[in-house]
Amino acid sequence: MENVPLLEKIGVVTVCGALSYIIVRHIWSFLKMGKEPIRVLVTGAAGQIGYALVPMIARGVMLGPDQPIILHLLDIEPAAEALEGVKMELIDSAFPLLEGVVATTDVIKACEGVDIAIMVGGFPRKEGMERKEVMSKNTSIYKAQASALEQHAAENCKILVVANPANTNALILKEFAPSIPEKNITCLTQLDHNRALGQISERLNVPVRDVKNVIIWGNHSSTQYPDVNHATVITSNGKKPVRELIADDYWLNSQFIATVQQRGAAIIKARKLSSALSAAGAACDHIRNWVFGTPKGTWVSMGVCSDGSYGIQPGLIYSFPVTCQNGEWSIVQGLKINEFSREKMDETAKELAEEKELAYSCLKDQANG
Ligand SMILES: NC(=O)c1ccc[n+]([C@@H]2O[C@H](COP(=O)([O-])OP(=O)(O)OC[C@H]3O[C@@H](n4cnc5c(N)ncnc54)[C@H](O)[C@@H]3O)[C@@H](O)[C@H]2O)c1
Predict the structure, then answer these.
(1) Are residues 284 and 139 part of one domain?
(2) Which among 5, 159, 246, 265 counts the fewest CB atoms within 10 Å?
(3) What is the distance in A from the centroid of ligand 1 to the CA of 153?
(4) Which residues form the Lactate/malate dehydrogenase N-terminal domain (predicted)?
(5) SS3 label, residue 275
């Protein structure tokens, strides 16, 4: 450096100093603050699933114990006061991970910058209402929320539709948010998946964590097909097929399927309210699997856009077995489908195709005023 003029020496020293300062500041802010917060939207947040779900998210059940969260809560005007109450309780819970709560009835404000959107809000079927009337209310909700998400959510926002009819609401969201990749739009069938795991675990008296690879095919409705043909249980003698351990095809092909299909109705009968705790838990499982991946050799069930796998009409949102890796799901390929399963898989696909037709006829009616 002896021959370098003084001014240049000063310049080099200044640049090095500035760079060191920037690096030290970055390390310091990383150590001090850890991860950047993730913005999670919950629609219908003043409802019963919302009330069970938001504390789970704020406690790290969905995204892990070291992930700061900013919750965006959306509901409609008549529920605004209740929504404010939920926000107050979140503040009063002093969740260490919770860095902010946006509680609003403005869909645009709710969607701004969100990384994950859990769509729980919707119009429920009330006594005496026609199916078409309920579908019509929900298609208009999901059409409007699709464009709000498309324009205001963060790039690569992951969307999970919970509100019923979940598959068709997700389909409408997909059709009216064409710039959101299809891969980012899913619907919840993890609750049905968990119900199927629970039934097998109860029947065999084994911990539910040892039951793997049940499948929910199709619609989140009573036509869904809970399939145990590929399911296994981890035993002290290694992995065994569920069919072999239960050894009762009659129970598996009739009662088990009906129990899982009708579980929602059984809970309403018992609680006089629909399932909320288990639905919220399943929504957390769904997102956690999607973001962090499924363990090697296991799959989960998700309502995703069909690519024609297993002969299911492309474009329908249909529940398939999926594995997740690096934040992306893929449909498990190559499973053997017997005649019994084929029939049940087609039956639920047929219902979804009919729902799609009904949703489009509602949209047409709305367009014609
Ligand atoms: N996919 C599944 O596995 C599954 C399981 C259980 C329930 N569900 C469905 O989840 C939905 C919510 O269930 P819940 O028990 O919480 O119902 P809920 O009636 O208690 O709550 C629904 C909330 O959505 C709000 N809402 C209505 N329209 C809205 C809109 N346009 N934008 C934002 N919010 C809106 C309501 O004001 C209400 O607070 C229902 O459609 C239910 O059928 C799905």
Answers:
(1) no
(2) 5
(3) 21
(4) 39-185
(5) coil
According to DSSP, residue 125 is labeled P
One domain, residues 199 and 337: yes
Task: Name the active-site residue from 72, 193, 220, 286.
Answer: 220
Kindly give the number of the ligand 1 atom that is closest to the alpha carbon of 164. 41
Q: Where are the alpha helices (DSSP H) in the chain?
A: 6-33, 48-59, 80-92, 107-111, 131-152, 166-175, 190-204, 242-246, 249-250, 256-261, 263-271, 277-292, 339-367
Domain with 247 in it:
190-355
Contact 54, 281 (CB under 8 A): no
Report which ligand 1 atom has the smallest distance to the Cα of 274.
15
Which pTM value belongs to this model?
A: 0.91
What angle (nearest 5°) sits at the alpha carbon of residue 302, between those of residues 218 and 182?
95
* pLDDT at residue 21, rounded to an integer: 59
CA distance 83 to 112: 18
In tens, the pLDDT along 142-152 reads 999 999 999 99
Instruction: Name the residue with tokens 């290694």.
Output: 238
Q: What is the helix (H) or strand (E) element at residue 124, kind and residue range?
A: none
